[in-house]
Amino acid sequence: MYNSLRKKPFLFFLLWFCILAVAFTWPLCQHIFREIAGEIGDNIYFIWMIGWLQKALFVLHTNPLNVSFLNYPEGWNMARTEMAPAQLVQALPFSLIGGETFGYNMSLLVSFVLSGLLMCYWVRHLTGSNWAGLISGTIFACLPYRQAHFLIGHLNLSGTQWIPLFFWGWFDLLKPGLNQIRKKSAFLAALGLSLTALCSQYYFFMLCLIAGFQLLIQFLFIEKQRLKDRNTWLSLGFFILFSIPLVAAAELPFLALAGSGGMPDRDWGAARMYSAGLTDFLLPGTMHFAFGEWVGSHFNRDLWNEATLYVGVIALGLMIYGLIHKKGGTSWVWSIILSGTITGLVFAMGTDLHWNGTPVEISLPVFLQARLDRETIPLILPGFVFFKFFPFFGKLRAMMRFGLFTLILIACGAGFGFAELLRRIKSNQRWIVTVITVCLILFEFFPEPIQQFSEIKPRPVDEWLAAQPGKGSVMRIPFYLNDDQAGTYYTLYHEKPFIGGFFNAFPPPQYSAIKGLMETFPSRESLAEANQLGVEYFLIEKREVEAAIQRSDDEFGWESLDALLAACDKSGLKLAGTFGDVIVYLNREEECAECKWLKESLRNSQ
Questions:
Q1: How many CA atoms lie within 13 A of 391 on its CB side?
Q2: What is the DSSP letter of 429?
Q3: According to the model, what pLDDT value does residue 370 have?
Q4: Which of 190, 435, 458, 584 has the most CB atoms in a 10 Å sphere around its CB?
Q5: From the DSSP assignment, how many helices (H) and strands (E) are in the chain?
Q6: Where is the signal peptide (predicted)?
Q7: pTM of the prediction?
Q8: DSSP for 189-232, written as a single string
Q9: Domains in the chain: how many in total?
Q10: Residue 478: cis peptide before it, omega within 30 degrees of 0
């Protein structure tokens, strides 16, 4: 085994991470063409993106960013949400072979393999040890953080593979040594940063912030002489120069949107919900085959998909071992690792201190309670200051995601610790220690087999819509369904304009303007507005209507489904039929007393 690793490390590493990808997503490979892991959620939106990219490029030959049939007739720009173009391009060849669901699943698996490979080679480059690289790559690829976002369907956040590539070049740029222009290192760092920007805006922003702190600490406190070195600044200049083309392509749409007011800052009350606590870094994932159920029943894991930040006892122990036994020649590496680790940890803990998913508050003195009109106050963290004053920081929702960078750097430190451990062991025993360590890591991280798979396919109503002539637009009832991932996906099949889309936190002006009125459907005013928007098909989704009525949603004003249908009939809408769970009404004017006013209002507006 040792000789095969030494002679053909790439093939060994590639095979190893492919095996891990299959094992940690089992039994996805048995469902890979038609189904996705877990419930339908954000995953269906990324599958739509893959299908739309393929259609836009190879069928319509149009710019995929401009989606004219969503938010119809105003249209919609995909820059309003995370596009993850690098992940989409990664999925595209597989989508052309087996469809968008296959492309989505394969993109996730490729991200798993590349995350392990690039982490492995980066640490191998730093330590000179294949075994250390294997340990760090295994830790990073198998992190419960990655498992959680895979299972919840975050294709963009699963694109972690380019971050080690950035750090590979970045560490070399910050490495001690004067009178060197490091173009190769600058290129590697620029490529990693650019591809990260094309995967996730969250990762790009966070990576820039953490790298900035590493740079400041290294040059202001560790190696002050580098500030006067001309070649150091030339190397950083090359890094910026190499970064510009792809970073500009990734960021300009978002900057334009932010400049037009389309990306407002988050509300602090909502943002603080996504502040991590120390327990999030110490608790195994709820997907773990042995401990997951116990963790889920004894701790607050309501935000498990974001709060799964378990670092692992083995990884942390190896990092501490490496730090204790570090050699003088590696001090510069450890200063960069620790500065990034601490920065990521502090920012992941968000705006105020949390413990077990709950804000920690301290009691105020009595004289302050009356003055401040409250009995307790939160323990504010540095993230609060950045949230309030640092550009773009207030647009972040889940600050927990900073924790990924702490995990990456701990995995790197673990590689150094393992390399140091191997130096103290006889050569013929190293493979035994490596196998034991790998087994312990896998035991800590291994999830239970995936229990639920969902098939992504059109509904009967989508097949019926596809057969209808014309390009009348579609509106779903209850209206909140129009800002939904699934409704966006179904447009791939029925190819009708849709007044909604998956707008997430940044709805476009038209949708925001009509939302309140359309929630009164089928009032006269809402039907008049629907005519202006070219709505021809009202899709009344029975289960959602009944659920909204049962919840007594203020935005839904009907006592029963039958009352809603009776109001549709009375308003002059024409029943087209029932297709599974969906009742379709056509917005076609009839000669009836209830709808003559619509014709008159349209004539007046023209």
A1: 6
A2: G
A3: 81
A4: 190
A5: 28, 12
A6: none
A7: 0.91
A8: HHHHHHHHHTT-HHHHHHHHHHHHHHHHHIIIII-GGGGG-HHH
A9: 2
A10: yes
